[in-house]
Design goal:
There is one protein chain. The protein has helices at about 15-25, 40-50, 75-80, 105-115, and strands at about 5, 30-35, 55-60, 60-65, 90-95, 100. By secondary structure, the chain is of the alpha/beta class. It has one domain (about 5-115): Glutaredoxin, CATH 3.40.30. It has a 6-stranded mixed β-sheet with strand order 2-1-5-6-3-4, covered by helices on one side. The chain is globular.
């Protein structure tokens, strides 16, 4: 399954760095610009429900979360994924059961090292996948 990168087409250095990191690592991904594929509250919640592992940029570092051990509440998902205006924070990488929000070199190094295992169903997480902890 191809990874999906939600990003912005214009003037977003983090989105450009994410695209470069994925291309350099040889990850097959589909780019979905928010200009053409807006993601609102309901869309963000769908993305969160379909993920098991989360890597979320937070300040200078990032948060690792395993929703299989500790489910993500709607409030937490919205805090992680949406701006105050209700639109998706970018970049967001959805790669099988892994969701990565934001970009730093360290964050993507960890995400790329995780290389999510194929899931048996397209929309739900695989229990046998490597953990992003």
């Amino acid at each position: 399954m191809r990874a999906i990168l939600y990003d912005k087409a214009c003037d977003c250095p983090a989105s450009e760095l994410a695209r470069r990191a994925l291309a350099k690592a040889g990850v097959d991904f589909e780019r979905r610009s928010l200009e053409a594929h807006a993601v609102n509250r309901d869309g963000a919640l769908r993305l969160a429900r379909d993920a098991r592992y989360f890597l979320i940029k937070s300040g200078a570092g990032f948060v690792r979360h395993d929703a299989g051990r500790d489910p993500v509440s709607e409030a937490q998902a919205l805090e992680w994924l949406l701006h105050e205006d209700g639109l998706l924070r970018v970049p967001v990488l959805v790669w099988r059961n892994l969701l990565v929000r934001g970009y730093t070199d360290e964050l993507y190094e960890e995400a790329l090292a995780q290389r999510p295992a194929p899931s048996s169903t397209p929309s739900r997480a695989s229990k046998g996948s490597r953990r992003a902890e």
